[in-house]
Each structure stands twice: as structure tokens, then as C-alpha cells.
């Protein structure tokens, strides 16, 4: 049987209905299938086999950990036309196609992408959007935020956690970690006061603030006007340059 091949793995969240029908007879051997359309909602539940989520743009991404993979997008039809979602190297990528010159540049009302997955090892957000994660459990969790957006993890239970913020965005993390490494560059901050770490380190460059809870040893490095707070009985070592201060309760 002749098999139809997709020219690329990334698939738009919304495609023209006629194209979806034309490709409905294609085999899915080893490739992501083209997804059909609905007015303002795209069903992308055939996307699977990823342990990380990477999003870029102004949209909202809601990640929940559960027994099965499922991805859906809903919102402003104009936003959905530009959203691209695909899996590459074990990571679900969510982004927007660039605007073509001459197109109407009126802002749209955005979209919400809901992602369900069995386990989460990494989450990355770039731009002005928001990402929330209900829980993460396992050996490692890598978190990255670039831009002015917000990233929040409701409950983490991991051995090693790494969290980095670049720009003016804010990150919030709750849960427990064997070790936690926090870094902030710019005016953004990391609020991990509700994250209890066995040990950790905080690295600050700029005017942002960071908070972490620990009863172990925490190394704090500050360059700039940002402040670092360590809550609990931790023993802190501090190296600071600038007006920023490290406050350790231990």
C-alpha cells in the first residue's frame, strides 16, 4: 500500500478541513498524523511520547500529569490558525507561525492549550504567556522561563530541581526536592518558599528576587540589587556584589 508522508513533524493546530480529508487515508507508520479541524478547537490527542513541554508566545498552557497523553487547543480562531504544535526529540513544542507581511496585525484574544501526560521532566516557556503545571514527580525537573510570562508548578516531588528565569517573568514552585538550583537574570524572580529542598544554591544577576525553603546547606551568589531569602534552618554561604542582600533564617 502506498503511504503518504508528511513533509514535517510539526503540525498546525488548525488546518483547512479539505486538506485533512485529503490526508485521511495516509498511514501513520512512525509519523504524526494531520489533525482535522473544528471551528475554534483542535483535537491533537494523537500527539504522544513526550516528557517535556516547550512553549513560546502569548498563549496559556495548562499541563496536568495523568495516565494518558492528550493535547487540545481552544480559543480565538485567529490565534488557533497561527498555533503550531508538534513533538520532537521527546518534547512537545508549542508556538506560533510568524505573521506574513501585509497581514492584519490586530491582536487576537489568544488561546489555551491543555496538555495531559504521564510524567513531566522539563517545562520551558518563552514570551508573555502563562504556563501552569499541576504536579511533577521523578528524578529531575528542569524549569525555564524567558521573557515576561509566568510559570507555576503546584506540586513537585523530585530528587533534583533546576529552575531558571531570564527577563521580567515570575516563577512559582511548591513541593519538595532533594537538591534545588535557582537562577534569575534580570528583573524576574523565583518564589520557591513553598518548596522544601534538602540543599541548594541560588544565583542572582540583576534586580530580581528569589526565595527557597531548606534546612540543609544553601550557597547564595548575588550580583546586583536582587535579594535572596532562605527560609528554614539552612546554613548559608553568601557571596554578594552590589546592593542585593541574602537573608538566611538558620
From TrEMBL:
Keyword Signal among UniProt keywords: yes
Gene3D superfamilies reported in the protein's UniProt record: 2.160.20.120
Superkingdom: Bacteria
InterPro entries: DUF2807
PROSITE patterns with a match to the protein in the record: PROKAR_LIPOPROTEIN
Domain Putative auto-transporter adhesin head GIN stretches: 49-233
Signal peptide (from-to): 1-22
UniProt keyword annotations, A-Z: Signal
Protein name: DUF2807 domain-containing protein
Organism this protein belongs to: Sphingobium algorifonticola
